[in-house]
């Protein structure tokens, strides 16, 4: 449990209620005096991005909790059914060599599945790293493009041809 969770529970509010209140506090503030449209855009986007950055871990944690509980439910299902299954299969009188061979087969399947899960996790990490790198490259390119645009507009503005028009 995180510290923020403990504080939230102490005040008898859920994390979602706490987030709603913090969002409403920001809405009540009056906008600063802006010098340009760009100032408004920059401030607005910054506030939205900050809010999303704050909420993303909560969304991920909520998904993780639901996913973990689902996996525990499946695990408990097999644990609960174990006693009945053992009695049922013991009554069938299956030869111990067959049970041992089946155990080896299941172990092989489990190991293959674990290897696949590790490979998939590595793939997703690689995919995320590539996405982050692509975003960084795109951001650098965008900065370069805006710089070139500014220089071009500045050049055109200083050109005497446009001043006479």
Structural features, described:
Helix content is 88%, strand content 0%. It has five helices and no strands. The N terminus is likely disordered. It has a domain of 70 residues. The longest helix has 63 residues. By secondary structure, it is mainly α.
Blueprint (SSEs and pairs):
Elements lengths: L2 H8 L4 H13 L9 H56 L3 H63 L1 H5 L1
List keywords for this structure.
elongated, 0% strand, 88% helix, 5 helices, 165 residues, mainly alpha
Report the count of strand segments. 0
Overall SS class: mainly alpha
Distance between the termini: 68 Å
> Any idea what the radius of gyration is?
30 Å
Portion of residues in beta strands equals under 5%
How would you state the average pLDDT, rounded? 82
Strand count, sense and barrel status of the largest sheet are: none
Morphology: elongated
Give the ordered list of helices and strands.
Answer: HHHHH
Helix content: over 70%
If helices are DSSP runs of H or I spanning 4 or more residues, what is the number of helices?
Answer: 5
Unreliable spans are 1-10
Nutshell version of this structure?
The protein has helices at residues 3-10, 15-27, 37-92, 96-158, 160-164. The protein has 165 residues and is an all-alpha fold.
């Amino acid at each position: 449990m995180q510290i923020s969770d403990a504080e939230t529970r102490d005040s008898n509010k859920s994390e979602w209620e706490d987030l709603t209140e913090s969002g409403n506090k920001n809405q009540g503030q009056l906008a600063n005096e802006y010098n340009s449209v760009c100032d408004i855009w920059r401030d607005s986007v910054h506030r939205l991005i900050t809010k999303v950055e704050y909420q993303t871990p909560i969304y991920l944690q909520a998904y993780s909790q639901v996913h973990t509980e689902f996996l525990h439910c499946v695990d408990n299902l097999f644990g609960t059914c174990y006693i009945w299954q053992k009695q049922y299969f013991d009554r069938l009188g299956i030869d111990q060599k067959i049970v041992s061979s089946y155990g080896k087969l299941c172990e092989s399947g489990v190991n293959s599945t674990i290897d696949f899960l590790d490979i998939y996790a590595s793939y997703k990490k690689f995919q995320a790293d590539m996405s982050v790198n692509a975003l960084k490259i795109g951001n650098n390119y965008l900065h370069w493009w805006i710089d070139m645009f500014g220089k071009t507009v500045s050049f055109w503005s200083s050109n005497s041809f446009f001043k006479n028009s």
